[in-house]
Amino acid sequence: MAVQLNRRQALQSLAATSVLATVPAAGAVARKKLPVAAVITEYRTNSHADVICGKILEGFQQDGGPGPDLELVSLYTDQLPETDMSREMARKHGFRIASTIEESITLGTGKVQVAGVLSIGEHGKYPSTPDTHQQMYPRKRFFDEIIATFKKCGRVVPVFNDKHLCYNWRDAKAMYDTARKMKIPFMAGSSLPVAWREPQEILPIGSVIEEALVLGYGGLESYGFHMLETLQCMMERRQGGETGVRGVQALQGERAWQAHQQGRWSGELFKAAAEANGQVVSEDKLRASMMHSNSAVYLLDYRNNIKVSAVMAVNLGAQFCLALKLKERDEPFVSWFQLEDKKPYGHFAFLVQAIEEMVHTGQTSYPVERTLLTTGILDRAMHSLASGGTAYRTPELAIRYRPVEWPYANQAGGNPYPCR
């Protein structure tokens, strides 16, 4: 007797046999497009609003082709730069420009009229914290107004929060706690965990990780978050699942280099991570990189005694690469997380697919606890940098969760990397 699996069951079944569909919709019955609202800071070319909402409006390639089973019906914009494209897109696609976040969700009816809300608090002109230089994007304000609307209307729907939950731990934890209390399906995070990887080897859940190092680039907060999500989507797969981080220290310049010479972050794993995308880095070149004001190393003390390092290195190639020392394996496990560096920035298509699945099923595609943890690590790292390298104990980051199987872009061999 044939058994018909629903979309999510089919995905999980394929994951269990390592024949995971690279596109969650593959083989699934076409579904009705569900309405969503987007609450954004600004909408301009290549902003996060463009590369996320644009894929709902104009397809995954943003060329009018196939896209997610979602319909953008309303948009709230917090700022309107001279290069704003939200009004032009509204005229083209017929969605509502809302004057308030409540209106974007209710469409002026007093009832929740959407099946999901996308909160995209990235880009725009917002101040930074004076001491730690963290960008004060209004993600908590967006979240609070979304929640206020849910409470007023007596109904909740899934919510996606782009990037880290908030620039500070207190607000991030409050957002998480509120979502749990109100039983809101809540996702957040970076597109890095669903981007292309080379090689395509899958780290089995339950792997015994003895040491880890991730290599990143860019802004210490803005891209430091992507680096941490690259790391965490692998660390959570270790034996026993995630148990949290008990200490964070961030070092720069001579102190970062001294930590390397003292063996606090592994030269062997750094070499393996750099070589994942074809880089050969000499000691002199590495030292020169670490002396740059935008380079740093985040030293992370995971609660099960694993030594973990996150290295932001200037002038060593703009890539995210990871190397793991695994028990009973001679060579490091390495992975190069590949991004499409031009329009349509296809890695965001795989993030949109994860959001789409949550909206349709009412279940998160992967745990928001991953991003709660990376948000907390990042906040402590930024404070450590601002204080000259203070080592912080982090009892608040005793965050436990189990990973799930959710595909990255080319996991089953399809969806080849477009930038070769």
Global structural class: alpha/beta
Strand order of the largest sheet: 7-13-12-8-11-10-9-14
Q: List unreliable stretches of 5+ residues.
A: 1-27
Shape: globular
Number of strands: 14
How many helices? The count is 12
**Could you give the distance between the termini?**
45 Å
Based on the structure, what is the oligomeric state of the protein chains? single chain
Strand coverage percent: 15-25%
Summarize the amount of helix as a percent range.
25-40%
Rg over alpha carbons: 21 Å
Task: Give the topology string: H per helix, E per strand.
Answer: HEHEHEHEHEHEEEHEHHHEEEEHHE
Specify the biggest β-sheet.
8 strands, mixed
Average pLDDT taken over every residue: 93
Descriptive notes:
It is built from twelve helices and 14 strands. By secondary structure, it is an alpha/beta fold. Strands 7-13-12-8-11-10-9-14 form an eight-stranded mixed sheet, sandwiched between helices. A hairpin with a 4-residue loop joins strand 10 (296-302) and strand 11 (307-312). Helix 6 (169-181) runs antiparallel to helix 12. The longest helix has 18 residues, at 369-386. It is globular and about 65 Å long. The termini are far apart. Residues 1-27 have low confidence and may be disordered.
Task: Briefly characterize the structure.
The protein is of the alpha/beta class and 420 residues long.
List the helices and strands and how they pair.
Blueprint: H1 7-16, E1 34-40, H2 48-58, E2 70-77, H3 86-93, E3 96-98, H4 101-106, E4 116-120, H5 139-153, E5 159-162, H6 169-181, E6 186-189, E7 196-198, E8 209-216, H7 222-235, E9 245-251, H8 253-261, H9 267-275, H10 283-290, E10 296-302, E11 307-312, E12 320-326, E13 333-338, H11 347-361, H12 369-386, E14 392-393
Parallel strand pairs: 1-2, 1-4, 2-3, 4-5, 5-6, 8-11
Antiparallel strand pairs: 7-13, 8-12, 9-10, 9-14, 10-11, 12-13
Helix pairs in contact: 2-11, 6-12, 7-12
